[in-house]
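Before a computer can learn anything about folding, someone has to put a protein's shape into writing. The outcome of that step, for a single protein, is printed below:
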Amino acid sequence: MKLYKIIKHILVFAIVALQIIMYSCANVGYPSGGEVDKIPPKVLASIPLNETNNFGSNKVIIQFDEYIQLKDVDNQVLISPPFENKPEIVAKGKAVHITIKDTLRPNTTYLFQFKNAVVDNNEGNPLPSLNYVFSTGNVLDSLSVKGKVSDAFTHKADEEIYVLLYSDFADSVVSGGRPVYITKTDKEGNFEFNYISEGSYKVIALKDDDKSLTYSNVSEKIGFVDDTIRPRYVVDSCDTVVDIVLHTFVQESAKQRITSSKLVKSGKAVLTAQCPLVNPIISSEAEIITSINSSRDTLQIWAMEEVDSLSLIISDVSGLNDTLKLRYFKKRGRQSRETFMKTNIKSTFPYYDSIRIRFTNPIDSVLRPNELVYIKTATDSFFTSLCFDSVMLNATVAVNLVPDTSYSIIIPGNTLVDIYGNKNDTLILKTKVDKPSDYGAIKINLESPYAGNQYIVQILSDKDKLVAESIGTPGVYTFPNLVAGTYKVRVIADSNGNTKWDAGNYWQGKQSEPVYYLPKAIELRSNWDIEETFSPAE
């Protein structure tokens, strides 16, 4: 029997060598200065043969019709089942040489997927999806699984995501176990497993940032299905059936903490929290003023004096309890002067909006508060005031704007003083207020069999920027004052009623809150009202 195997391998090698010699004689290549080569390498032969049974070697040679290179082997070559010891895979001339360093399991089908690793030597044309497979038993496993991976929130295809199959169903297998089969998604988020043995498998999608094939960090994207899957036999190579769909997410950190803290200038600190803050309590030996942003994860803190060190104690019911000691180190050279204030005024101003001003530092005093702002139109002129928020950091101009009217707005210099004694320069603004007919409206009739459920209905621009949103139960949602353009509609099933989308949690077996998109875009024109009925399936 051993003599028979030796003779068989000698004959195979001789046949392959003869094929290579014959092809090399016939292949004269492109003449110099001819067309650019766009043809990827072609496989001529392999030793042992592809799809060999009773494989007993530790070396494989795959021969091509031209000189080749290997690109990004660590990411582009996938091996199922994975080896404990990484095999040596190198390019030598017109061949790929594989040296296996592990002891092969009996009665096991092994698959090498080269993805886009093999490219020709001159133009770098990749040979896509080259597979080399063998079995250490009498037969090759032949079952398959096809699927798709997309982002749970955006529904966009997830490219270059690892998809892993496990025969162990324990939750902990993703952090310490080894998958049985491995593949990756393509540009459309599609993936396919072939040469799988019969049985049930746990399936995981993972953005494996540290290349450990484990879910080692909650900042890594992950997706899972609730039940195990069973592979099937694919009769038609053009079969497009999608067996499973996975939605990936980045799990929210359960531990609240301050992720960054800095004294950005004398007296002013900026703190960023891991999760939104509920009702932060901040104390300091210095007298301070605090402001929180709309997403409630960033705090701005001003000491009433321009100090270069600041100690803070911060606590919040979200689980935060921290003591911070901050120092400011002045930059060398001349420092540019801070902008005293910014406004939302542009050359054309929305008729429905208010003129808003944001100050760099809280305001301490106002000269002539009732005659602070001078406003002039073609037919009228008058003084008015600013309406400040509780920390004197934001203000609106007290004026009712008239549509289709041009305005000049003046705030004289030295009329506003911030807590550090800085005074404003004269501010002169000009704008024209538009009119209601410049806008359109979108009306969404949200239908759902779950009448009491809460939903977040959002209008997005064609670049996926949030334009408007409304929260409530199924019914009619009207979004007025939209400029002409292309819009998308997104609906979030707010399962826990916290008015925001929540990502899943693998360790708790919780999927992300469902997100739905209206299948078609909405083309809106000025002075139009468009109504759409949307029935997201749950």
Remarks:
- The helical segments are 2-26, 73-76, 173-176.
- The domain at 439-534 is CATH 2.60.40.10 (Immunoglobulin-like).
